[in-house]
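Incident log, structure service

09:12 report received: a user says their structure output differs between two submissions of the same chain.
09:20 pulled the input from the user's history:
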Amino acid sequence: MPDSNVAGTLPSATTIGLVHLTVSDLERALAFYTGTIGFQVIRRTSQSAMLGVNERPLLLLTELPGARPARGVTGLYHFAILLPSRRDLAITLAHLLELRTPLQGASDHAVSEAIYLADPDGNGIEIYRDRPCAEWPRAGSQVRMTVDPFDADGVLGELTHAPAMWSGLPAETVIGHVHLHVAHLAPARRFYCDIVGFALMQRFGNTAEFVAAGGYHHHIGYNVWAGIGAPPPDPDMAGLRWFTLRLPDKASVDAVLRRAEAAGLTIDATPTIDVYDGSLPLLRDPSGNGVALEIRGAL
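09:34 re-ran on a clean worker, output below:
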């Protein structure tokens, strides 16, 4: 990811680490996330599972039997799986089409090409590839993402001369960003920019904003598309429990925590989960979305 001197106090090496979701049926979710999406199970118990790529944790699932889909509330809009190349996106798209997996959409965002779908509980997923950062349209230090038609023929054309079999997610796959429903934009901006330390990269009208570290197009998106003033999800709903920001060192984590304390925020800890080692400092944005802080390489 690019390293540029844009506003913001987070180190340029900051990334999204792990996404923790509530699902209603763990076996069903595992079948989807392994067979359809291509994650590998790293470890699991009867109620939780850690998934990732090459033993690198990226997704944590916890079962809440009978959990209802989240609708009209704050929480997850989607989490985004970043693939290494356009060819990898083509292989994934061909696989999803072969399985007749329902897609919710596809877009060319100028900085990236993306397809959208949902897991069996309605948790949103984006699968995308980035264009080289030199090609990203910009206005000063900010990017100008678009919502243009997806070139499915062009993407699948990557396989015309060199067909490939799908074999799961590529080794370099990461969680590229997380996009959230929030109740109001301004309090979310103060939290993610002033306290956490991201830079504002783009405003999308008066309904969504995108923030990032190190000049990336966005690590976090947040929107009011569930309704201005949307309430937090009920305890019996599926969806996001928390996600992690992966920072390069303890000093970077401590700096975020000092800003949170100065703002009067409560600092909690992630609950102990049998497939997850240790606990992390946990902040909640003004809409209740959980943001945990981890040090790169600590897992």
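09:41 both user submissions now match this output. Likely a transient worker issue. Closing.
09:42 reviewer note: DSSP finds five helices and 19 strands in the chain. Residues 15-295 form a domain with the 2,3-Dihydroxybiphenyl 1,2-Dioxygenase; domain 1 fold (CATH 3.10.180.10).
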